[in-house]
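Lab notebook, bench 4. The sequencing result for the construct came back, and we need a structural model before the next group meeting so we can plan mutations. Quick request posted to the team channel:

Model the 3D structure of this chain.
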Amino acid sequence: MVKKLQEVEKSKELKNSENEEGKKSRETENPRTEDRKTNSSSLLITEDADVQSRIKLMFLVDMPEDFYKFWTFCESVGSYALSKGDPCDAFKSVGLKLVGPFDVLANRFDTNAEYSQERLLRHWRYYYDPPEFQTVIKGDDKTGYHLGYFRDDPKDKPVFVASNMAEKSYIIKPIAENLFGAVNSYLEDEKQVADPFVKVKIVKLQNQLTTFAKKENITLEKTTETMSKRNSKVVTKLFHKAGLVVPFDKKSEVGYRELAENDATIKIMLGKIDKCKTEEERRGHMSRLQPVITFANIANDECDFGTSLELGLDLFSFGSPYLHESAKLLASTAYSLLGRSEFAKILEAHLKDRKKGSNLSALK
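Done. Here's the predicted structure in token form:
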């Protein structure tokens, strides 16, 4: 089938699409200029709106119950953890800080002030965070370690809390069903390597965490029944390994089909595109990827929306600026067809100013 598609594409080789790729990649390298030229929609954060409504307005997703309970817990341990009354620093002694939507609870955003929607959607969004991943805790800046909620649909609750080390790779590692379980797992790991002085702090914090979780009937298990059920629905692992879940009818096999090439081959293609020294050379390698893109677009026409989303997210995870436009078009189309338009907005905002490093706060 791929050969057939290549024959179809040969006659219209990209239709100057690579020129557009080059243009977009240059814009990506200087994204702030693009932002200045674009009149982004602004949001008014009103004082009378409750905190849940403000978070939904700002980040386009709802936070789960354990998010708010974790904040309550951090308020209770703040003074002990030498955070000087700031719950966001309750785990400062063990290298963690609450960020992202927690900044709303900490009243760091001015009320009755206007904010750019796109800027808010980039608030604490690390380089390899796909739209499904919402960072809520930052760790070591050297590795880019951070924790976030992962959800398959923007209208649903998160399916688990995961970690990523943005300075090392795009791999997303599921940790636990909720934030308490994820932080407890982090503390358990740190306890094994910490010096005696820090270990004392970890043990005391962990005891407080487990006591609170038990009182609130919050599970600390790393793998729960809910997570296992979700695993059974995964149609493909994606480059980032956290998995993709889309509606899929096993009898008719409608909803997803495998990509035209395997992951290893696609990664080789993307590596060649990224490392090109000239636009002419890059156009040649893009032409070899084009049949895979066309195959994914045909899958959309036949209601296999997961295929286009898989390829779009894989291109995003690979991380090359030269692939941003293709990643956006593939994933955004699939998100729209799947009724996940919020994720499309998050992706577009992120790609307009996709930054490496840990200086990611929208609060300047």
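The radius of gyration is 22 Å.
Will bring this to the meeting.
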